[in-house]
Amino acid sequence: MGAEQTLRARMDALATQLRAEAGLGVCQEGPNPWALALDHCARQIALILEETPDV
């Protein structure tokens, strides 16, 4: 699997995680569960992009 396909698969997994966290109330400790879930996913995306070589 190429780097682009790997990155896309990991982004899809993060999108699924975001929907699950927001939908199941995992991030209910703050005033805005969507903001907390998006922040978590944005941090994960940044880490993935740092690890992914240029395509």
Describe the fold and architecture.
It is a single chain. The chain has helices spanning about 5-25, 35-50. The chain is mainly α and about 55 residues long. α1 (about 5-25) packs antiparallel against α2 (about 35-50).
Please supply descriptive tags for the structure shown above.
55 residues, mainly alpha, 2 helices, 75% helix
Summarize this structure briefly.
Helices cover 75% and strands 0% of the residues.
Distance between the termini: 12 Å
What structural class should be given to the helix and strand makeup?
Answer: mainly alpha
**How would you classify the quaternary structure?**
single chain
Please tell me how large the radius of gyration is: 13 Å
Helix and strand sequence = HH
Helix content: over 70%
Helix count equals: 2
Number of strands: 0
Mean pLDDT: 73
Q: Name the beta content range.
A: under 5%
The best one-word shape is: elongated
Q: What low-confidence regions span 5 or more consecutive residues with pLDDT below 50? A: none
The largest pleated sheet is described as: none
